[in-house]
Design goal:
It contains six helices and four strands; from the N terminus they run αββββααααα. The chain is mostly helical. It has a single domain, classed as Aminoglycoside 3'-phosphotransferase, Chain: A, domain 2 (Alpha-Beta Complex), CATH 3.90.1200. Helix 2 crosses helix 4 and helix 4 runs antiparallel to helix 5. The chain is globular and about 55 Å long.
């Protein structure tokens, strides 16, 4: 059932026919650097871009706004998403669906990485971020496009929905 659900979600993404962009895949606070000798938007620098590939524009927006290590002001996520949609001309509904699909996928992966780092490498400091990551997963699962996945969690891992 798990594979069927994800195949369906991938199908929803593919049906959107949104043009791929350069996707860095690791856009989060530790990889952003302020370049004080530059002006305007050029002041923001990125590191850890070697894994960049062509992909959906929503992925890096999720990466930035659902940072596993930092809380953002409560209204920031919605405001930035709306600005991104307005600036790119993407369909708001499609973008929101993609944002939530990628958000859940990405945060499930991060959850696994944090647990692995703790269990296998003794890096237990990552565990402090699990409540935030679980919150992102729960929020994403509330989207109507993820109803089947939400039901799967309800049946197999209900703790995720109880946060």
């Amino acid at each position: 059932k798990w594979e069927e659900i994800w195949a369906s979600l991938v199908g929803k993404l593919e049906a959107m026919k949104i043009r791929d962009v350069m996707m860095l895949r690791d856009v989060h606070s530790p990889n952003l650097h302020w370049l004080g000798n530059r002006q305007s938007i050029r002041r923001v620098g990125f590191i850890d871009i070697q894994d960049g590939i062509a992909g959906h524009p929503a992925y890096d927006v999720v990466s930035l706004l659902q940072d596993a290590r930092r809380d953002l002001p409560e209204d920031y996520e919605g405001r930035f998403k709306a600005l991104f949609v307005a600036e790119t001309g993407l369909d708001a509904s499609d973008f929101d669906t993609a944002y939530n699909i990628f958000g859940v996928q990405r945060n499930l992966r991060i959850l696994g990485i944090f647990v692995r780092l703790s269990k296998m490498q003794g890096k237990s400091s990552y565990l402090q971020h699990i409540p935030r990551v679980n919150g992102y997963i729960k929020d994403g699962l509330a989207h109507e496009a993820l109803a089947d996945l939400r039901e799967w969690f309800k049946n197999y891992v209900p703790e995720v929905l109880e946060i």
